[in-house]
Amino acid sequence: MKKDMPTSNQSAKQKDLVRNTLDSSDKPMTTDQGVKINNDANSLKAGERGASLLEDFILREKITHFDHERIPERIVHARGSAAHGFFELYEDLSAYTRAGLFTKVGQKTPVFVRFSTVAGSKGSADLARDIRGFAVKFYTDEGIFDLVGNNTPVFFIQDAMKFPDLIHSVKPEPDNEIPQAASAHDTFYDFVSLATETLHNHMWAMSDRAIPRSLRMMEGFGIHTFRLLNNHGESHFVRFHWKPDLGVHSVTWDEAVKINGADPDFHRRDLWEAIEQGHFPTWELGLQIIPEEDEHRFEFDLLDATKLIPEELVPVRIVGKMTLDRNPDNFFAETEQVAFHPGHIVPGIDFTNDPLLQGRLFSYTDTQLSRLGSPNFHELPINRSIAEVNNNQRDAQMRTTINKGKAAYHPNSIGGGCPFLSKIADGGFNSYEERVDSKKVRARSASFKDHFSQPALFYRSLSAWEKEHLIGAYSFELGKCQIDAIKSRMLYLLNHIDSSLAKRVSDNIGLAIPKKIEGPMNMNIGADEDPSTQQPGKLKNYLERSAALSQDKEKPSPIASRQVAVLVDHGFDMKGFEKFKKALEAEGASVKIVSPSGGIISCSQGMKHKVDAQLSTTESVFYDAVFIPCGEKSVASLAEQGKTIKFINEAIKHCKTIAFLGKAVKLRDLSVAKDFLDDKAVFTDGSPKDFIKALAMHRNWEREPHTVKIAV
Ligand code: HDE
Predict the structure, then answer these.
(1) Is 670 exposed, middle or buried (0-12, 13-18, 19+ CB in 10 A)?
(2) Which of 22, 115, 161, 694 could form a disulfide with 657 if both were Cys (CB 3.0 to 4.6 A apart)?
């Protein structure tokens, strides 16, 4: 019988059956062996005040299970949040691939997506400056396809051999286990400054991409070049892109630091609540498709994961949409136990010789063996294929399938030759018949050697405010390092990428840019190779600027699910409040009443309103915009709270949209907002239209240079 994974239109009963979910409502409590329990509060004792008895199997079972509840966290990407959804294809791509996922237009393929940070532990804060994982499990009719990507289009290293070094350098330092979920320390910069291939991805990590406003507002990238194979065995190269319908947006570093303290679960909560409220996040899937014959057309190597293919050179073709519409029922069973693997592909998709990808193909199954403890991890409900699984793999720990029959080998006659093999024409998997004719070498291709041109392209492509943020990030991170020789090496390298960038960072950290650096600086070379081939090499400028690399877009983003704080107390003006609230909610924004006291407050019309957050328990950094309605009593009460002024000052500092209606102008004049009267996102009239327009642009970054002196 063919199993079916849930799509949003399947019945709840069907979903539970496949996913092995258990709803305990109206059920008696039992032991793991099904025995009904009569007393769950007291252990079995020799007398009420006597010793506990070893025979108490109920106590022993409960404690033993508890003792073993934790499994090893992921060695990287330990901190994650996930959701269910589906992918829908716009157009038939059978000219390129035979994968049903990309040829059956309109079919909904179920997905499970896990977002993560890389460096921090499972319990670390969400707003760490870090690359985000963006891993998608497609439950296709032809088996599982995992697109295990990140929110940057490139990676730090070119060859899997260096992955443990990269991760060891960024993880907390081994002597004192400091710092948690932070790259701003000596070991990381020691490695980065010696391994120049890291510089491109590092530049992305110093950009706003590494502190997203929401997991729902990030791009995703498969990074490696993969192959698509069609029914004729023809191959095209492909790179995968996810483009969020909500736009790509970030917070400032100052906000990130504050959010980490005030709500370390900020991203997790944001994703969860958006889905609960029906604001289902969506991404369009884009493909960059490159014909076989164009493999060597570019001034970089397609197999090099530290290089992106600018969209100006190969446009991104939008082919479908992914919607996340259901939160997991159980964090551990789903988000923690999901096992992704770039080697999970389906017929019609294939690998390339990218040496980073090739190493990953080994690593992911290997890690599941220690993390999930058994080669049967594919039997966990979240990892199960919806295509039927039949083979002669047997046994091992925690096997749940009960295979029938005697034949567990192939060929066999006892089992009628089953399970039988499938012809390629009948859906059997085939690999691209790539010609391989070469010497066995331990080397890096010369075509991988340019480590500077794309970081320079990225920097050139940023807007002025993005460059300022990046300069701030480098200054912060290097400022936290202790060893001058490491910082100097970084300045030397930055100077090769962009001298104005290096100069600003050098001024900020108070260290001169060195003219020369002693010793080799390119770890790609082996002991017997010529050190003169090392970086930095000459910059190539094949493109002045790539618009896709910048987050600075003229197009407004939808404001649905944006959080708007309304600062009020008893007696606030209902008319102005309602006008804004209605207009904002009509666009899907969430209006939250923030007031000095919790509970219920009444407005000018005597109506009762439930307070969403007490001023003392919330922070300006949780909201995208603020408005303060008129109302003498309300404004007077707010004016007495130091937190009100801090709240407003922070909103101004973080370039947010803010409106002071009627008498609330008094609060504008008590805060730094009085210095921003001509600002295009600071309002004093009663029209929500302009407020919404400003919010749709995310922030007024033009304000930022004037906020430097704001002391919050
Ligand atoms: Fe991973 N990576 N990785 N990685 N990776 C893991 O697998 C590894 C790389 C990525 O939400 C681990 O199940 C090696 C690139 C994501 O569960 C581990 C190399 C990209 C996730 C592993 C890389 C990624 C992982 C840890 C270099 C972007 C989280 C737990 C050869 C394209 C998936 C696990 C999730 C997880 C190894 C490089 C993305 C240890 C050896 C490049 C999103 O197997």
Answers:
(1) middle
(2) 694
How far from chain centre, in Å, is Cα 238? 22
Cβ burial 524-544 (10 Å sphere, 16+ → b, else e): bbeeeeeeeebbbeeeeeebe
CA angle 460, 127, 149 (to 5 degrees): 65
Phi, psi angle pair for 318, to nearest 5°:
-80, 125
149 lines ligand 1 (CB under 6 A): yes
350 CA to centre of ligand 1 in angstroms? 18
**pTM of the complete model beyond 0.85:** yes
Alpha helices in 481-533, H assignment, sequence order: 484-497, 499-509
Residues ≥6 apart with Cβ < 8 Å to 74: 80, 116, 122, 367, 371
Q: What is the pLDDT of residue 451?
A: 95
Distance CA 641, CA 615 (A): 9
pLDDT at 531: 67
Q: Is 602 left (phi over 0), alpha (psi -120 to 50) or beta?
A: beta
Report how far apart, in Å, the C-alpha atoms of 394 and of each of 92, 403, 445 are.
38, 8, 41
**Domains contained in the chain, CATH given:** 80-191+213-383 (2.40.180.10), 446-549 (1.20.1370.20), 563-706 (3.40.50.880)
Per the listing, tokens 């998608």 go with 136
For ligand 1, whether the C-beta of 451 sits within 6 Å is no
Distance between CA atoms of residues 186 and 199, nearest Å: 16
* SS3 of residue 696 by DSSP: helix
Condensed to tens digits (0 to 9), the pLDDT of residues 587-596 reads 999 999 999 9
Give residue 686's pLDDT.
72
Query: Ligand 1 atom closest to Cα of 223?
Result: 32
**Atom from ligand 1 closest to the CA of residue 116:** 11
Nearest to 364 by CA among 77, 659, 699, 50: 77
User: Whose C-alpha lies nearest to ligand 1, atom 28?
Assistant: 149
Instruction: Assign 609 to helix, strand or coil.
Output: strand
SS3 readout for 624-636: CEEEECCCHHHHH
Q: pLDDT tens-digit profile of 76-122?
A: 999 999 999 999 999 999 999 999 999 999 999 999 999 999 999 99
Question: What confidence category does residue 533 fall into, taking pLDDT thresholds of 50, 70 and 90?
Answer: low
pLDDT digits (tens, 9 = 90+) for 24-37: 888 999 999 999 99
Beta bridge partners of 143: 140
Spatial neighbors of 455 by CB under 8 A, at least 6 apart, are: 199, 200, 202, 203, 497
Inter-CA distances, 176 with 77, 166, 173, 486, Å: 21, 18, 6, 20
Does position 466 have pLDDT exceeding 70, yes or no?
yes
Distance CA 550, CA 206 (A): 13
In Å, how far from its chain's centre is CA 590? 23
For ligand 1, pick from 304, 340, 354, 371 the residue to mutate: most ligand atoms within 8 Å of CB: 340
Pocket test for ligand 1, best of 79, 151, 360, 361 (most atoms within 8 A of CB): 360
Per-residue pLDDT, 18: 55
What pLDDT band is residue 5 in, cutting at 50, 70 and 90? Answer: very low
Q: Would the pLDDT of 678 be above 50?
A: yes
Q: Name the residues annotated as catalytic.
A: 77, 150
The torsion of the CA quartet 659, 665, 667, 669, rounded to 10 degrees, works out to: 110
Are residues 605 and 611 in contact, defined by beta-carbon separation less than 8 angstroms? no
- State the helix-helix crossing angle for 464-480 and 253-262, rounded to 10 degrees: 60
Query: Measuring CA to CA, how many Å separate 166 from each of 93, 205, 252?
Result: 37, 14, 26
Q: Looking at residues 628-650, what average pLDDT do you find?
A: 98
